[in-house]
Structures are given as C-alpha cells and as structure tokens.
Amino acid sequence: MKKQFVLPLRLYHSLTTLLTLFFCCGVSSLLVYLLDSLTGLQLELPVALIICSLLTIVSGALLLAWEAGFYIRPAQSVVEATGRIAKGDFAVRVPQPENLVSTEEGVQLIANFNRMAKELQSIDHMQKGFTGSVSHEFKTPLSSIVGFSEILLEGGLSEEERREYTGLVHEEALRLSRLAENLLRLSRLDAQAIVMRHENIAVDEQIRQCVILLAERWETKDISFSLDLPALSIESDPDMTKQVWLNLIDNAIKYSAKGSIIQITGESAPDSICVRICDEGIGIPEDKQAHIFERFYQCDESHQEKGHGLGLSIVKRILELLGGQIACRSQIGKGTEMIVALPLDSGKSCLLPISAK
C-alpha cells in the first residue's frame, strides 16, 4: 500500500503557496537573466524587476489555480455523490484520494460522507423491509376476513357453521385492530425524544397489577406465578413502565406450557433496579436471540399466530427513552428469562449491569 502523508488544510495550503512562489520567482529570475544574457539587451534593474514580477504573478496564478484542484477535489467528489443520493442512489461511495499528500479535512469529509451514505442505505433497506412486513401482516388477516365473509354471503350454512365463520372473522378483525394499535404506539414512540412524565412508581405493585390484568390469559392455561419482589420505587413514566411489564408478562404467558410457573424477581442497586421475568416456555434458539427486538421478527412461522413481532420492539424503544436496558437469556425447551434494568430517575441512564445470573 502506497504511503500517504495527511496534512491539515491550512498547513498544506501554506506550504504549497510558499513553494509555488519560490519556484515561480526562481524560474522568472532565470528567464530574465537568460533573456538579458542571450539577447544583449542589458536591461536596467527596474525593468528587469518589473518583468520578473509579471512573470512570477502570471506563472504563480496558473500554478496556484492548478493546485487548487487538489484542495477542492474531495469536495467535488462529495458534491457529485450527494447529487446521486438526492436521486435515491444510497449505494454511492466516494473513494479516498490516492495522492502522496492529502488534506486532513478532505479525508475526514469523504469518510464522514461515506458513513452517512451507509447509514442512509441501512435506513432505506429497513424502511423497505418494514413496508413489506406491514403489508404482509395486514394481508394475512384481510385475506381470511374476505374469504370467510364470502362464504357467509353465499349462505346455505348451518347455524353452527355460521357461528364458527363469524367467530373467525371477528378473531381476524381483532388481530388487525391489535396490529394497527401496536403500529401507532411504535410510531408515537419513534417520534418521541424525551419522557414528559416523571412520577414516583412502586414497580413491585405495578407488576402485581399487570399480573392481575392478564389473569384471564394465564388462568385458562393453569399457569401460576412466583413473585419475589421487594419494594422497588423509581421516578419515571407510569404508562410506559406498565406497557413494558404487560408486554413481557404477556409474552411469558403466550409461550408457556399449561401448568407451568412464571417467576418474577426484583432487586435494587444504588442507582437502578433490576427485574427478571422467567418462564418455562419453549425457549429461543441462541442464534436468534440477537434479533428478537427487531420489528416483525419472529423466530419461526409457528409464532405468527401468537403475535406480529412488535411487542419486544415496543419494549426496547420504551426502555431506550427511559434510559433502561433489556437482555435475554434462553434455552430451547427450558424457558426464557428477560432481564430489565431501569434507573431510579428516568432523566439518567441505567448503569446497572444486567448480565444474566
């Protein structure tokens, strides 16, 4: 790899200007001397100085104009690439100059532009993927609703069949409603930059209330809860924290077998609290655990009937706003443990390490 010297623009400009002036002065003096010697004009000193100065100015201007191309070349490349990005080409990249000497500012400009273009490309891919996922998630229940409603309109069904198909239409309509509600909630969270409400929250009591609110879900599966929650108090947004516990407990219920136990424990630290929600469910493969907080991500096709893959995305975004953290520990066939850490004050970031026990 060819060695390259990177200099600050001011130093680079000063050095090139001085070298150019010295070179032009030397060449002009030599030309005037040769002109005087070869032609025998015997120029007087003032005339020789005027001719030498004019030659220096002209040649210096031409050389400096040529050298300016090296200064503005990175900016020109970035301008051209910016035009391509404005037309939607986010794959464009600007190569670093291969000159022996480059300016520090030019190198940084190109590096920052390429980093920006990479981020824009990533956002573009994410947006297209999100649009495709939303379309797919809406298409499935809508197809079911259309299909069952056509059967109902054709008539000729027994009362039992009619009730069954009507129930399926109602079920798919509720699924669409939940999807739209989650999308709106996620959209509001994405647009939110700060937490407006700061109230004192008894987290242990809030979790117990969430368990009671979901009683209909876990009672039908004969699931029992083991709560080991000391007094946990924080300053935060109660609606946001409640949504976190509802989503995580609902997930634990959803993927737990009948007759299993869900354990919820809590602990406090000087500046943070930590809550662990552990189920005895089907577990998550290790290679998929890093993706579970991505929007619409589902570990396998069988999970599509149980949700849309937005619950953990909402939890992740809420915790980002509250300055909290979340981690997952899971084993196939043994269950999943979700570990949540929250700062005592949502105006601060959580410093509590949440590596699983």
Question: Care to describe what's here?
Answer:
Its main location: membrane. The chain crosses the membrane at residues 12-35, 47-66. Residues 69-125 form the HAMP domain. It is an enzyme of class 2 (transferase). This protein is an alpha/beta fold. It folds into 3 domains: 5-120, no CATH class; 130-191, Helix Hairpins, CATH 1.10.287.130; 199-343, 2-Layer Sandwich (Heat Shock Protein 90), CATH 3.30.565.10. The chain is 57% helix and 14% strand. It has 8 helices and 9 strands. The chain has helices spanning 9-39, 45-86, 104-154, 159-191, 203-213, 215-219, 238-254, 311-322; strands spanning 5-7, 101-103, 199-202, 224-228, 233-236, 261-268, 272-278, 325-331, 335-343. The strands form 3 sheets. It has a 5-stranded mixed beta sheet, with helices on one face. It has a two-stranded parallel ribbon with strand order 1-2. Helix 4 runs parallel beside helix 8 (311-322).
For this structure, the quaternary state is: single chain
In CATH's first tier, which class of the largest domain applies? Alpha Beta
What is the ordering of alpha helices and beta strands? Answer: EHHEHHEHHEEHEEHEE
What is the approximate shape?
A: elongated
Return residue spans where pLDDT drops below 50 for at least 5 consecutive residues. 301-305
Strand order of the largest sheet: 4-6-7-9-8
- The named CATH superfamily of the largest domain: Histidine kinase-like ATPase, C-terminal domain
